Amino acid sequence: MTLITTRIPPDAGTRRRGWRTALVVAVAAMLAGFGTAIGVPPADAAATVDAGAHHVLVSPDGGETTDLRNSTAGDVGVLADCGTGSFHAEAVLNGGTWTARNGGSTVYTGSDMRSAMQAAVNSLSSGRTSKQRVVVRGSGSVSANSRLSLPSYTILDVCGTINVTGSGSGDQAPVYARGATDIEVQHLNLTGSPLYGIFMRNVNNLTLGQIDMRLSAGLGVRIDNHGGDRAVKVRNIRIDNVYVQGSRSQAVETYGVDGLTVGTVTARNVGESGLLLNDTINATIGTVDADNAGAGTGYAAFRMANRNGRVGSGYPTNIRVGTVIARGGGRGIFCVSESGGAVIDRVTISNTGNNSILIENCYNVTIAGQSGTVTGGGEVRIAARSEFPISSGITLQNLTVTNTNVTQNPCGGANNVIRNVTRVNSTLRWC
């Protein structure tokens, strides 16, 4: 059998959708045709990355096999990509029955999605020092007062939707880890009313891939170091693409992280911030895109708090943000409580209910390093509370501010600069 790789041209919009459809149909055909043989590698399949792993190979034309193991979402689309590649265990829904398997062994059969997923995870090699992967194929419900717990060196790929029902307390989450390392969540679609959608405490070397949450309660993603010595930050956190709608709290929040890379956080109608960084250093953020984040509150599309960006006793530039977009909601950008060391390259802020931008007791912060617009909403303000040193090293530049004001109050602080700011129906109060 010949292995070939199909790549979709990145500039072919209509053709891309056609190829994606063909691939999804091919996957469905394979599942129907092979039944329980899902996950069993063909005899001539290429070597796996880890002993015991299986492959799913798709043959869209009934002849040569298309090898999707090295594909990305850009190649075949998120739906077709989910569940492809090598795996060690799986939880599969057939009718109303969940079956968890590891190789030729069945480790769970029943009606409970969480139990099936946990059984698949628990079937992975004990004491492993390299990652093993679990694929979930199907949709179902889990209780808000329960967890799917992931140990170290685990990859989870959920090809379906987890709907969270009921209520609970504490740090329960449908995807949970604590005191672990080397965890990946490749795909996750979540609905319902979780306390937390994803909760990761004291987890190093964490990767979150394509995450989609349509919620009616809770907080989307929480990553923190609050399980022990909070002077020791968790390290090497990567978030590719997170969409959160309807959470009562933040879409994404970190606390106590050293080394954070974020592609895009999209927040829609969340109760508090789109992205909130607390006590986090060495972060690179691509885009924060928020509609109606924190309406009626002091939260913001993008917020930094609790000495975020502080390294030792100083604020070297270590928080780098590409774009912040805020429409409506509470604030657009909010830096507070001795945070700083940040450069935000591009801003587009419109019609916020509270301050468009509020910099309060922060240090070495540049807003609109490249370009930006602020339209309507509350004023752009540099402020300070008396219990912290006054804001300093704040630069507002390359902005067009329309129908709102720019204010520094109280006066004081060194090296606060405003330059290349165009004001339209806007007053300036600068010390």
From TrEMBL:
The keyword Membrane applies. Keywords: Membrane, Transmembrane, Transmembrane helix. InterPro entries: PbH1, Pectin_lyas_fold, Pectin_lyase_fold/virulence. The keyword Metal-binding does not apply. Gene3D superfamilies: Single-stranded right-handed beta-helix, Pectin lyase-like. The chain crosses the membrane at residues 21-40. This is Right handed beta helix domain-containing protein. It comes from Plantactinospora sonchi. The lineage of its organism: Bacteria, Bacillati, Actinomycetota, Actinomycetes, Micromonosporales.
